[in-house]
Known about the structure:
By secondary structure, the chain is α/β, with parallel strands linked by helices. The protein has 23 helices and 11 strands. It has helices spanning about 15-20, 25-30, 40-50, 55-65, 75-80, 85-105, 145-155, 175-185, 210-220, 235-240, 250-255, 255-260, 280-295, 315-320, 325-340, 355-360, 380-385, 400-410, 420, 425-435, 440-460, 460-480, 485-495, and strands at about 105-115, 160-165, 190, 195, 200-205, 225, 265-270, 300-305, 345, 365-370, 415.
Amino acid sequence: MPVMQETAPCPTRRHDDYRERVIRRDEIDRYLSAGRDFIDDDSIERELSAAKADDAARVRDILAKSLAVETLEPAETAVLLQVTDPGLRGEMEAVALAIKRKVYDNRIVTFAPMYISSHCVNRCRYCGFSADNDQQRRRILTMDEIKAEAAAMCGRDGHKRVMAVYGEHPTSGAEFIADSLRAIYSVEVPTRRGKANVRRINVNAAPMSIGGLKTIQAAGIGTFQVFQETYRHDTYARMHPRDTIKGDYGWRITCMHRAFDAGIDDVGLGVLFGLTDWKFEVMGLVTHARELERYAGIGPHTLSVPRLHAASGSEISRQSPSPFSDDNFLHAVTVLRLAVPCAGLIVTARETAALRDRCVDVGITQMDASTRIGVGAYASRQVEQEIDKQQFLLGDGRTLEELICDLARRGIITSFCTAGYRCGRTGSCIMDALKTGKEGKFCKVNAVLTFREWLDDFASPEALRICEPVLQSELAAIQAQMPRFYPSVKEHYDRIAAGERDLFF
Ligand code: SAM
Ligand code: SF4
């Protein structure tokens, strides 16, 4: 691998020209109604104050609607957010898990983030990559370095899904992102019994124009993820200086509308909890999900719930403006599972292993593991050790194998399935299939096939001992529940066990 080049502090402190080039006013205005975006702060506050706490009969009516896999109204979401009674919270958690089982069965999908560039023109007050942070040593990976990262991620731990993460900077625009996706997809490494490659890349990057989004779509993007950070307009303005690109709330809040218009129908929303009242943020997420359903007929594929963690150079990150306890975290995840039943729910390794394990009980569907958040940290030991030069600090240091074994001990199968978007099962197609349970059939089968691959290629003898019973019980369930489909599944399964790779339905 080439020696990693470090670059000088972020060169673009003043970037007015760049901002003018990036933000297309007409690609904001067309999505506004009478000049306003769809987040009405006063209306969210009103819904929250109108919701009566612990109205058991109303809560149970709402839970019945969630169980029917219907997206909740903001007023219904507010009622669930105001529950304080431990018994009612317990009922909500039980229904949240039942919905997760109904829509996503007993699977967890795993991935790992790949930080590709820490150069950023923005000055978000909570982020270690802020252009104001002189302590940050900036890096942007070359295409060879990106390939080395991909090889380390899929060859060492067996990851099949990557979340590629980029700061916002002229050097990491849409063309660069597209090239980096192609570089990752081009890597293939030999394994114990077969070969490994990254099969799905999700992207977490700044909002783009429709043209930019088409460029990255052409390179084969999985989910396009942008977090609003905070839906409250005044908090947003305090966190993101006005003269930065990110300071434009309208450009960010309309980015998923542009994604749909660019042909990307698989999008991920999120907020950064800890910047303002967490209940307001959950209401914002649900309102955004409903707005996308209205606009495009499809809700978000995923919702993410990052919480503010200590980051170098950021005072705010050390003293959260709106503290958000572990119990609040669980409550928020539970309500999101109930309010947007079809969305995948992601809780990252920012959180501790204990809290993430609790979140599994209330319906999360995706977790990262063997996570490294330094730019180039998978392939370079030097970067891996520079934890003070990363975006923030991690809470869960489990390796992928450790996470998989912890899940298997609880009877949960880890899925490496990436078939959905490669078979065109995205957007409304996947959302309808999830609602009716049809997608579950493919997901269950592909989970078994990809887990067989992972066990044969990467598992230690101890992990095999822990995980094999879960795999065999899933295979038996397929035989019992889908007897006509089972022979084709078994034929694929046997071919994988013999060393063939990447077979899916
Ligand atoms: N630059 C792009 C953007 O801002 O959308 C994408 C990359 S940014 C590194 C990805 C996410 O990291 C942000 O959307 C934010 O939610 C999260 N983040 C930033 N600072 C954080 C902190 N101190 N703790 C936890 N998450 C943080
Ligand atoms: Fe840049 Fe994103 Fe960090 Fe803001 S959150 S400073 S835009 S990398």
